[in-house]
Amino acid sequence: MVEQLYSEFPDLYDAIQSDWDYDRDVSFVTDRLAAGDRAGTKLLEVGCGTGEHTRRFVDAGFDVTAVEPNEGMRSRARTKTDAAFHSDGLPDFDIDGRYDVIVAIRGVINHLAPSELEGAVETLVAHLTSGGVLVFDNSPLPPEGNEVALDVGASERGQYARIVQMDPTGDGRLSWNSVVFTPGGDFFIDSCEMTPFEDVTIAAALSQHGLAVEPIDGYGPDDHRTVFVARK
Prior knowledge:
The chain is α/β, with parallel strands linked by helices. The protein folds into two domains: about 15-140 and about 195-230, Rossmann fold, CATH 3.40.50; about 145-195, N-terminal domain of TfIIb, CATH 2.20.25. It has seven helices and eleven strands. The chain has helices at about 5, 10-15, 20-30, 50-60, 70-80, 115-125, 200-205, and strands spanning about 40-45, 65, 85, 100-105, 130-140, 150-155, 160-170, 175-180, 185-195, 210-215, 225-230. It has a seven-stranded mixed sheet, with helices on both faces. The chain has a four-stranded antiparallel sheet with strand order 6-7-8-9. α3 (about 20-30) crosses α4 (about 50-60). The longest helix is centred in the N-terminal third of the chain and has 10 residues, at about 20-30. The mean pLDDT is about 95.
């Protein structure tokens, strides 16, 4: 697995994702919590990336702990907010305490192998307070793969381009491959494996731990992922 976009070019990752509606995602979470003062409410963000959601949760009044296994992404996130950051991730992580809210936004779960889902859910539930809320999504990945996609845009350093193709691996996963052309004229190849989980599989894993599960169609209009809101 090679993920240079995450490790060496997190600023370029931010440019590529600049159209994403992070405010909408955070509002989705806050809207589903009990009304009242959120100051001091403990929130754990799993897979925080470059910290765009993180800083918004901090600004909303949460006491945020964020985990991210990639040092490049985590270092960039630290420049944006003063949350507590840890190098860790699913399917298990060694973080003390329990949290009122746990979030894993934008396909964090899809990075897991099918065999890791149960352990990941167990880890999340173990860190959730009684009455706590867990929010994460299932990306609508095509099990049969995709047509080659081209993304062209601009960063602070100039124009970039990214070509992405996903191919089935034969074991229920997708090989996610991209070629990224940097503003400086260089290019690199990234690859990782993703899992196109079925919604019923995720819902069953949550229900087995006694959580009340509500699947919702997206964080907002035109978002085609399934968001799971689970309460302990």
